[in-house]
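Hi R.,

As promised on Friday, here is the backbone we talked about, encoded as structure tokens. Could you run it through your design pipeline when you get a chance and send me back a sequence?
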């Protein structure tokens, strides 16, 4: 039987950030996820923006955590080799009515203690963002809104937590939680029982199902879908900042921004679904993005789309971000409502939950030998010539390009598979090194990636999965 101090349910941004924070202490931590890879669900299909919290509801836990998290990313990115850039956001008002809303938005930012928001004139806006609607009346500049690689953020949390002793149990679904005499005793999973004194529910979209396992089903989670376009890196109309619409009550609205790898991201929608699995994109949804974004950036060239995707926000009903503990279940921490800002607030949520556990009585002695740094996989495409040559000298596989669109080498793919918590599927390789993320979307490199995975894992190519268990890409030999 497995045994640990703390079980964290969910290996998304939030669960992995909590694991990393707890791994700074002499505490046994085990992260359990039903998926085949770390990276979560919503955590790998979002806008990849590290928010400032300028538009949060002042005084809420969400405002507190987002505002606290934003400044943490310079050090996190530097320590763990996470692609991150403080490109800033602009919020252009294109109608008189929107223009009149700007003072209220600035005041809200102030009430959230985001003090560096500035007014920009129409002229100033068009100087820094020439592709904006020329009708723009003026707007706001939010300098610390930033972009990040969301996949590498979660991998970095997980790998660093793992290097510091946290263990990960993947392909394992939590099916029950045992509470005896008002205390957490164990977690039931499809891989057997885990004895533990503390459980953190970081199960995102399914956190209500986990809460029901301990009899705390006082809220429901509804999936709020967001659809996106990704445009080619060489698209004819680009923006330099995150171009945000004036937010509404329901959503931050549809934006256009560069991704950290130089593509253009356009979206998302906000549609409440009656199921938690529909990650399709729809003509209606995509059309609504085009209609809204062309009001901000009229020349946006949607024909240069290389892919479309959608993500599901865990929308809590009743609304609001909650970190709950219960007098009648010692050792249980329930997170819910981690909806539209969870990627950002993962950094501060790690610290917040660690404090909640300490307050509950978990002994937390700091490890003097905590490893702060995580070395990422070399990004061959971004290296100067001399460093490329040195890498090839050390390992000739860095001299073989597998993904031509993104210039990804065999050396990087092998490293993605071999490192701890390594890739076990084609999508897991893609999220680590970008093979298949370019304009051909894996049309050329896909079969080569399958071959490398099969060779490295010692399995037939027919058994290589696209992502979840059984999602085979090759049916068998036809000759
Ligand atoms: C369209 C969209 C745009 C967004 N844009 C941004 C943005 O720009 N910036 C930002 O900060 N945030 C953004 N977000 C929000 C952010 O992505 C989420 O809040 C965050 O990723 C939630 O992380 P999580 O770890 O709580 O959940 P998830 O990433 O969903 O992870 C939960 C994990 O729990 C696992 N799990 C569930 N049930 C079980 C079980 N029974 N047993 C084992 N494992 C289980 C799942 O497999 C999953 O891996 C956006 C979200 C969406 C959908």
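Update: got your reply. Pasting your designed sequence below so it's all in one thread:
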């Amino acid at each position: 039987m497995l045994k640990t101090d703390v079980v964290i349910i969910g290996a998304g941004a939030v669960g992995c950030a909590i694991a990393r924070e707890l791994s700074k202490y002499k505490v046994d931590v085990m992260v359990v996820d039903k998926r085949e890879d770390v990276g979560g669900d919503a955590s790998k299909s979002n806008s990849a923006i590290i928010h400032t919290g300028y538009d949060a509801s002042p005084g809420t836990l969400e405002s507190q955590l987002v505002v606290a998290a934003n400044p943490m990313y310079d050090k996190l990115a530097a320590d763990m080799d996470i692609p991150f850039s403080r490109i800033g956001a602009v919020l252009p008002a294109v109608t008189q009515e929107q223009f009149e809303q700007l003072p209220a938005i600035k005041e809200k930012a102030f009430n959230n203690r985001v003090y560096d928001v500035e007014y920009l004139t129409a002229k100033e806006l068009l100087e820094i963002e020439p592709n904006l609607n020329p009708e723009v009346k003026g707007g706001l500049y939010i300098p610390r809104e930033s972009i990040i690689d969301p996949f590498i953020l979660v991998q970095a949390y997980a790998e660093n937590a793992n290097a510091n002793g946290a263990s990960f149990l993947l392909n394992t679904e939590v099916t029950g939680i045992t509470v005896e005499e008002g205390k957490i005793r164990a977690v039931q999973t499809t891989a057997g029982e885990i004895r533990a004194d503390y459980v953190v529910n970081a199960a995102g979209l399914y956190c209500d199902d986990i809460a029901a396992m301990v009899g705390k089903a006082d809220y429901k989670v509804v999936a709020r879908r967001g659809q996106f376009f990704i445009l080619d890196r060489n698209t004819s109309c680009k923006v330099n900042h995150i171009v945000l619409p004036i937010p509404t009550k329901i959503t931050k609205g549809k934006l256009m921004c560069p991704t950290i790898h130089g593509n253009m991201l356009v979206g998302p929608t906000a549609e409440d679904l009656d199921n938690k699995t529909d990650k399709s994109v729809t003509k209606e949804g995509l059309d609504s993005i085009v209609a809204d974004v062309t009001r901000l950036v009229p020349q946006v060239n949607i024909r240069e789309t290389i892919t479309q995707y959608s993500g599901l926000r865990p929308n809590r009903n009743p609304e609001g971000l909650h970190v709950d503990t219960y007098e009648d279940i010692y050792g249980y921490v329930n997170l819910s409502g981690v909806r539209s800002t969870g990627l950002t607030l993962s950094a501060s949520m790690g610290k917040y939950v660690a404090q909640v556990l300490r307050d509950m009585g978990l002994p937390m002695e700091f490890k003097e030998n905590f490893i702060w740094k995580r070395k990422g996989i070399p990004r061959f495409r971004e290296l100067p010539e001399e460093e490329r040559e040195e890498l090839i000298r050390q390992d000739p596989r860095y001299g073989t390009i597998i993904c031509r669109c993104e210039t990804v080498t065999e050396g990087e793919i092998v490293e993605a598979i071999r490192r701890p918590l390594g890739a076990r599927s084609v999508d897991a390789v893609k999220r680590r090194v970008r093979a298949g993320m370019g304009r051909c979307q894996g049309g050329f490199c896909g079969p080569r990636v399958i071959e490398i995975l099969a060779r490295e894992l010692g399995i037939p190519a027919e058994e290589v999965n696209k992502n979840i268990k059984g999602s085979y890409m090759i049916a068998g030999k036809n000759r």
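One thing I noticed while checking it: The CA atoms of residues 204 and 380 lie 34 Å apart.

Thanks again,
M.
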